[in-house]
């Protein structure tokens, strides 16, 4: 017996069946109509009692009386109102209820007049929705197509080249324009040190030619035999 509460606690909570927005709008509007009809009936009964008290001069409200008959819609009228309520867009449900309450506060109708006032409010809301839909710009056919991701495009990005353009600026051209001029490699680079006079670079001295060797003393003439001359 002690395990029954634990078993019930482990059970999953019941899930509500999903309901369509049109059904929720229909139920909300019909509940608003039923509540306003009961309120109008109560106010009508209070007005009738106040009028009877003024006419007779006696208050009989403390006496037990028979239950008052409540006003109800006919089945055909209820089906017609439900058909109109099903056409109301969910975004116009709140404005329809506010407009219905505003008219009830201004006119204070009888019980049998509440349903007709409710029908007129629904027709007004439907006409307003149609005007808003007509004034809203319609999307173009090609704008309904979902945009293609650039990574999934097999063609890849394409650069547009105009054959009539005189000069097309490129990124490399801008970089070359902002870069400092390159020096010539065949010439030395002279740069003045910062904060002082320019320093002159000294060139290395050229090597002098070696002197010819002097003849030694006591050395005789060359013993090399003379070259024979060619005979003509």
UniProtKB/TrEMBL annotation:
Region ranges (Disordered): 130-232
Single Gene Ontology BP annotation: protein transport
Compositional bias per record (Basic and acidic residues), positions renumbered to this chain: 170-180
UniProt feature, compositional bias: Low complexity: 141-154
GO cellular component: cone photoreceptor outer segment; nucleus; perinuclear region of cytoplasm; photoreceptor inner segment; rod photoreceptor outer segment
Composition bias, Pro residues: 204-213, 223-232
A Pfam family the protein falls into: RD3
PANTHER family registered for this protein in UniProt: PROTEIN RD3, RENTINAL DEGENERATION 3-LIKE
Protein name: RD3 regulator of GUCY2D
Organism: Canis lupus dingo (dingo)
């Amino acid at each position: 017996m002690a395990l029954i509460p634990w078993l019930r606690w482990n059970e999953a909570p019941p899930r509500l069946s999903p309901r369509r927005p049109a059904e929720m709008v229909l139920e909300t509007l019909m509940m608003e109509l039923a509540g306003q009809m009961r309120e109008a009936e109560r106010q009508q009964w209070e007005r009738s009692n106040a009028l009877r008290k003024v006419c007779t001069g006696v208050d009989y409200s403390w006496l037990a009386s028979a239950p008052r008959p409540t006003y109800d819609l006919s089945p055909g009228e209820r089906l017609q109102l439900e058909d109109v309520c099903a056409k109301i867009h969910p975004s116009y449900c709140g404005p329809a209820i506010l407009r219905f309450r505003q008219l009830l506060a201004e006119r204070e109708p009888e019980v049998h007049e509440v349903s007709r006032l409710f029908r007129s409010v629904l027709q007004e809301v439907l006409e307003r929705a149609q005007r808003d839909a007509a004034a809203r710009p319609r999307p173009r056919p090609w704008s309904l197509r979902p945009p293609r991701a650039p990574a999934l495009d097999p063609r890849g990005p394409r650069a547009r080249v105009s054959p009539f353009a005189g000069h097309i600026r490129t990124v490399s051209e801008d970089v070359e324009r902002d870069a400092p001029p390159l020096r010539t490699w065949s010439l030395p680079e002279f740069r003045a040190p910062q904060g002082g006079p320019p320093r002159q670079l000294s060139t290395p001295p050229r090597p002098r030619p070696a002197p010819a060797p002097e003849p030694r003393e006591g050395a005789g003439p060359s013993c090399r035999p003379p070259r024979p001359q060619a005979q003509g």
